[in-house]
Structure formats: C-alpha cells, structure tokens
Amino acid sequence: MSKRSAPEDAIEQSSVSAVKTSKESVPKSNVVEENDIDMGEFEDPYGDEFESDGEIIEVDSAEDDDEELDPEAVAKKIESEEQREQQEEESTIYLPHRSKPLGPDEVLEADPTVYEMLHNVNLPWPCLTVDILPDNLGNERRTYPASLYLTTATQASRGNANELITMKLSSLAKTLVKDDEEDDEDDNEDEDEDVDPVMDSEIISLKHTTNRIRVSPHASQTGEYLTATMSESGEVLIFDVASQFKAFDTPGFVVPKGAKRPIHTIRTHGNVEGYGLDWSPLINTGALLSGDLTGRVHLTSRTTSNWVTDKTPFFASQSSIEDIQWSTSENTVFATAGTDGYVRIWDTRSKKHKPALSVVASNTDVNVISWCNKISYLLASGHDDGSWGVWDLRNFNANTTPTPVANYDFHKSAVTSISFNPLDESIIAVSSEDNTVTLWDLAVEADDEEISNQRKETKELDDIPPQLLFVHWQKDVKDVRWHKQIPGCLVSTGGDGLNVWKTISV
Description:
By secondary structure, the chain is mostly beta strands. It is built from 5 helices and 31 strands. The protein starts with a strand and ends with a strand.
C-alpha cells in the first residue's frame, strides 16, 4: 500500500513568494510599481542594474561568496533533491498496522502494479461472512475477464432489514499495470479487459444478523446449492439457492417464492447464537456441524426424506465454540476451536460425544481454524492475541504437549479468519482486526546470508518473517475465502463491502 497526499488545491497558497533569509532583508512584493512598467522587454532580472539598498534576496548560500548565482544550477539542485526524496519514499515499506498512522490529509491507495485483479463490491450493510459458490465454468481458470459466484449475509441496524445476498460477478478485468515494453501479442489477449464489471444479485430476506455462512462444497456436482447460515438468534437456516444460481445465467427465469424460504431450520441451539459452522467435504448427501457460545456442537445429517439433528451435543467445555472444521480425509473426524484456548479433535462415532484429543493452542481465544486440503495432517489456528500457527496432527496425543511446526505473531490484533490455499498447501491467508489480510508461503526457507543482506538494504525488514508474501488492506475485515477454481483469487469481506482480488505473489 502507498500513501497519497491530499489534493494540492486543498492547501492554502500564500500570496507572497519571496524568501527572507536575513534580518535586514524583506520579502519582495508582488505589487507592480509604476517604474517597473517601462522595463525593457529583454531585461535580465538577475542583472546588476537592479539597485536596492534594503532588498538582498538569497536563494541559496554558495560555498564561495564571490561566486555568481547560476539559475540553471539552482534548478538542477532542486530537481536532484526532489528525486532523492522520492526515492526515499519509494523505498519505505508501509505496513498499515505497524507504521505510523496516516495524517489527516493522507489516505491508503492500493498499488495496481502488485495486483493482478482488484475489485470492490459495495453493499447496503456490512457483512461478517462470505462464501464462494462452486460453478461449472471450469477449473484452473486464468483468463480474463473472470466470472465468479458468491453469497454473503448482512449485519443491518435493524433485524428485519437483514438479507442473504447471492450474486454473480462477471467481466472482472485484469488490473495489473502493464509494462510499455510488453509484446503486442499479450495486448491482443487482454483487449477485452476494458469492459465494465457486472454484478447480478438475488435477495432473500432474513430476520436476524448472520454470524457465519457456508456453502456445501458438493453444490456443483449435486445441483443443490445447500447454504447454511448461523444467525444471532441461535437458529441455523439451510437454504437451497440453486434457483438463484440458475437465474443468473437463464434470461427471463423468475426465482420461485419457495426458493426464498429455508428448506430446514435447526433450533437445537435454542436462543444461543454461535459462530462454528461447516459442511462435510466428504459426505455429499449433506452433513452439517454447528457450534454455539455454550460450547455445544450439534451434527445435522440428511436422510432420504428429511434432515435430522442429533439431540445429544458434542461437549467438553462451556467455553464458546468459535470455529469448526471437518477433516479433509476422514468423514467422521472434525476439529473445533474454543475461547478456552483449546483445539479439540472429535469423532462422530463416539457414543460419549467427548473429544478424542485436546491441545492448548493459545493462552487466548482460538478464533479460527483451517484444515489443509492437500496434506490432511496439517491444521492452522488463529488466535485472539494476533498470533497464528500450523500444527502437525501426528504429534497430537494424550501424553505430550505438542508445539506448532510454524508460529507467527506478525499481526497486532485478533485473527478473524485463516485459510489454507486449496490448490497449494504451503500458502495461507490470514485476516486480522488490524484491517489487513496477509498471505504467507511456508515453503520459503531463506538462508541466513540472504536475510542478512535484506536487512542491511532495508531496515524495515528486520522483524518481518521471510515467509510473508503480501499485505492487503481492508477496513474491518472479517472473513476471507479462496476460490478453488480460480488459482490465487480471494474474496474478503469487511466494513466497506467485499474485495475480490488476486496478487502477483500467488
């Protein structure tokens, strides 16, 4: 991110331009005297014919007092000084949560040269959560303009003003600033990138704020776009937004009224709200876990005729369940994160509904967790003190206290979301209440000599881990999700709406 000063016309300009450098000197007035009117057309303003006992204006002090002041030399010196100051500014690393706060006339502006794609979506209310709808447009999509489908839900000032918003974003252009020396062939490939982005949306009215929203990962295969919301009322609503999805690509299609109502409502949590919510990536018929502030986790499964919620909750502590993640390799195993600092591993086959393993991950709340798609024994956790770590589940056992295989405390405020890149097990996205989303590459292993050279060149790198790839600024960012079909693409939600972005780093 770079700093941008306020417009120059916002700064009051002085009407006197002369410079006073000594007690005896006075500023030269801008008023035109009568005698000045008859000055010759080619009169040299720096000539010796100008006489004044009291006005001696010094532009700069020369080393040799007898040396005559050269206007060209002064201009060159000013230009050189400006270039030096500009280079100093460019070499300064500005980190929103670590550098000095912006001045009243400064705002943060994204550097377009480090983004391959960056689009902002303004919404009527802030959203605490977002998720991406799988589509049939193909995997490994790298061409532009891009299209994607997503869903979110609002946090309105009045309960009945809330909405579940399903949208299609299309004609998303590449925003990377191209080098003038690039081949004409590349220009021809991206000649359609100047098209304006298009947003289509479908609305479902809600009565309460949604704390978390999650979409079944099997939606594009089954044709049912099962979408669950955990609301502040304690209810878990399950919708099928397949009709909304169809409306985006079928001209004239009208969404039936029945498709705007939930197909099932889970009321087992009573009036206790929660944040933990996750669909099983392995059970395509539909298996949903939901956790609340009292530490209870309920499993809801789908039968041939309806939905069934297990009345006996999984329970270990009265501390709030902040996040839930199904295992990516075992269809009966899941993990929870709690405000008591524990990460717990559970098995749905347990008749006692107790955790199989419990590990202290932090001295503060464990806000979020993420199970790696590629390597099933890796689990990441984000904490309330701003730190986050990666755990090797093979080290989890009842007899020892494991330590994370990677641990970072770069963020200075609570971690609000953490997510492994589904296409690259070494890349992790972390969002924080310090208004930033950071991208990390755990595969980076810079040797000591390289780190030493970097620190000598740039002082700001002293306490920055070499694994840090990128810092994205977004006000009040709460949730960040990777797009599984567009490599490197992320969607994040915050106080100013949604950001859809992709960096040159991933």
